[in-house]
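agent> step 3/5: call structure_predict on target 'Pseudouridine-5'-phosphate glycosidase' (Coffea arabica).
agent> reason: downstream docking stage needs a structural representation; sequence fetched in step 2, passing through unchanged.
tool.input:
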Amino acid sequence: MQSSALSRLSNLNNHINPTKKGGSEDGFGGLIKISPEVSEALSLGKAVVALESTIISHGMPYPRNLEVAKEVEAVVRDNGAVPATIAILDGTPFVGLSSEQLEMLAKLGKKVRKTARRDIAHVVATRGNGATTVSATMIFASMVGIPIFVTGGIGGVHKHGENTMDISSDLTELGRTPVAVISAGVKSILDIPRTIEYLETQGVCVAAYGTDEFPAFFTESSGCKAPCRVDTPEDCACVIDANTKLNLKTGILIAVPIPREHSASGNLIESAIQRAIQEAREKSIIGNAETPFLLARVNELTGGASLAANIALVKNNASIGARVAVALARLRE
Ligand code: PSU
Ligand code: MN
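tool.output (status=ok):
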């Protein structure tokens, strides 16, 4: 039922297939659909910012998730770029969602499959609904030619990852897909020093924005020095442009610290994180269920403070990401 409702929505809004020189006639077997607005912006070389959908389905509760998804798109527009939220609906990967599609996704929440690189082919083949994680969103952004993608936090090396081998596919994707990801670093639910090490192994350019330190999502500091630093949207655009011109084929991670006025609750959140990690261990919650569990539990334990901080930093990232996209479009004029 839910699936057929999404199918109706996907037929309603006139999405078009991308064309790709040298690819099949309609690009990627005609599987991907781009919204008319995003398609036009891309063909005119205008600034476009990709947005993920797992943050909507698994990262926040309804209806706040829908409001935030719309607010983030509005922030991107206010800063001069076109937002392109990405999700798989009824087996079709969409780049740029209509408001009906966004609403359906937000309402379905965790009933939608959390879709990383490994899940894409199966979700498409079974005509399922998939909320794309950072790795899957990067893939579709790259396929259609969107160089910049904004999110809250990326996945990383989980604590004890040296034993469990739970390392997010976001990190390997950054190593193989040339998209710049703007995030607030990684949460301290993860092993931050090992995450930075692993990104080095993967050859990913990791730059902190306006600081020397790699940020830890809810707080500005992680105790880890960032490998390099950028200070303006133009700096970011130059790094992306060099990465592209040299055809390095690797992604870029731009880590933006949470705005200071929202990091005040950081210590409270840190202690909630430690407790949530302990509970996850006691309940044997592992694999791709771990991150959504920890996010929801930390929010309960902090009485909503972590959600408020999360929303504030995503919007801040969206504003910077859109300005980077504008700077890059200017550079390429
Ligand atoms: N970290 C967050 N918020 C999120 C996620 C990570 O602070 O919403 C989501 C993103 O979609 C990310 C995914 O790509 O979780 C990583 O999941 P995993 O650790 O299972 O790879
Ligand atoms: Mn994992």
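agent> step 4/5: record observation. The first helix runs from residue 2 to 12.
agent> proceeding.
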